[in-house]
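Dear colleague,

Thank you for sharing your sequence with our group. We've completed the structure prediction you requested, and as agreed, I am returning the results in plain text so they can be pasted directly into your records. Please verify that the sequence below matches your submission; if there's any discrepancy, let me know and we will rerun it promptly.
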Amino acid sequence: GRAKAEEMGRRAEARQKAELIDGLRPDSFNQEDIAKLDSSYVSGLDQDQFAAFAPTAMAGFGKDHFAAFDPNAVAGFGKDHFAAFDPDAVAGFDREHFAAFDSAAVAGFGKDHIAAFDPTAMAGFDKEHIAAFDTAAMAGFKADHIAALDAQAILGLDQDQFAAFDPTAMGGFNADHFAAIDHSYMNALGKD
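Please find the predicted structure tokens below.
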């Protein structure tokens, strides 16, 4: 309810502020239009332009587009945008992109998105990002993703998220990670 209304208000404000892209309003682009944008061109797009894009157009962005995005501009993407990304394309994001994401927006990522993340980019997430991930999406984390997380980011995990990790992902936890988590979370393991 309220979060959706806030997201819609944010997007409406961005549409008013966003500069035109080749003479077109960003919210007029569809998936095919997005796919035609040159990767070098998208590096000049700003936060308001990203926020103004319709979520349904997001699947047009590819890995090369994501790699070219200005890290400061990706904060314009909301949860609905993230949910609509092509899972294979998110491998183009790097640590700086992850650090710049709106923490509430990462709740739009599903397990297939997470599974495709470049493990080296994981260090960009902080505890607010981790806390915002949908519990069902946690199954997408792999051991190399976990290993790359900063121990402070692990503080964002709740018990349900911890229990939702694929058992093979647990191999990525190191001593610093385990020192940072609430040990009562261990009670949630093996309940399935």
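Summary note from our side: The longest helix spans residues 2-17.

Kind regards,
the structure core
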